[in-house]
Records
---
Amino acid sequence: MPLNPNQSVNFPCKSAQHLRNAIRDVQRFQKTYEALEVEGVQEKKQLTELHQQRVQSELNEKTRTALDNYMNAIDENSDVSASAVSVAFALLV
C-alpha cells in the first residue's frame, strides 16, 4: 500500500521519525516552490504590462511629434502642396 504524504503514520523506530521529518521537509519545499512559481508568473505579467505601457507611451510621443511637425509645416509653408505635407507626415509616423 503506497504511503500518502498527508497521512500520519506511526512508525516504531527512529528511522521512521527521520522518514516523517523528510516527508515534512519535502512538503515544505513543495509549498515554497509553488509559491515561487506563482510569484514568477505574477512578476512576468507585471513586466509585460509595464512593457506595453512604455511601448504605448513611445507610440503616443511619436504621434504627437509627427502631428506637431505636420501642423508646423502647414503653418510655415502654406505654399507647399498638401500632398508633400502628407508624404512628410506619413514618413514621420
---
Amino acid sequence: MWRAANDLAPVPAELARPYTSSGARGLLKVGFGLDPGDERYEALRLQFLDFYAREFASIPGCSTAWPNCSISSTGTDLPWGAW
C-alpha cells in the first residue's frame, strides 16, 4: 500500500522479506532504490514511519501490545523497529 501511494506496483514479498529487519532503511532500499543521503530519502522515510504507525495501530491487538514491546527493549543496546 505504501508503494501504491507513490504510484508504484507492490514489491513481491519474497523480494522484500530479507530487507524488513532493516526497518525503513531496508524497505526504502528495496522499494525505492534509495539510501540515506539520497535526495528523496528523508521525505519517504518520514512518510513510511507515518504509514507504519497508522497501519500497525489498525491491526487488532498490536496497538495494545506495542507499549509492552517498547518498554521491554528500553535500556538495551538492541537496534530494532522502523528507524
---
Amino acid sequence: MIAGAVTGDREIVIQVDALAADRSFVSIQAVVDTGFNGFVTLPLDVLNALGATAAGTRRAELGDGHVVELGVYFLKINWRDEVRSCAVPSFRSRAPVCGTALPKLKKKEEHWHTDRA
C-alpha cells in the first residue's frame, strides 16, 4: 500500500525518497497526477540540488496536446524499500509530480516468475 495525504488544495501527495549525490536520502513530497503516465517528474532546481546526472532529452505530449522537449536525468529513488535507478524528466512545474507508471519491484517480479522446464 502507498501512504499519502490530501492537501488543503485537495491534491493527493505521496513521499518519494531520492538518493542525493552525498549518498543521503532526501524526502520529496510529490503530487499524484493520474493524467501523467510516467513515474515521476521533478523541477530542474530539485534535480540539480540532488546532483542528478543529465541523460539527454525526450519529447512528451502534454494533456492539452502540446509536445514539449524535456531534459531527462538519472536518479536513484527508494521506492517501497528498494532503491531503483530511474530516468526522471525535468518539468517546468513548481511541484514534483508522480504519475501512474509506478516502478515494478524486483521482489514482486520474482514472486510471479515460474520455472518452466
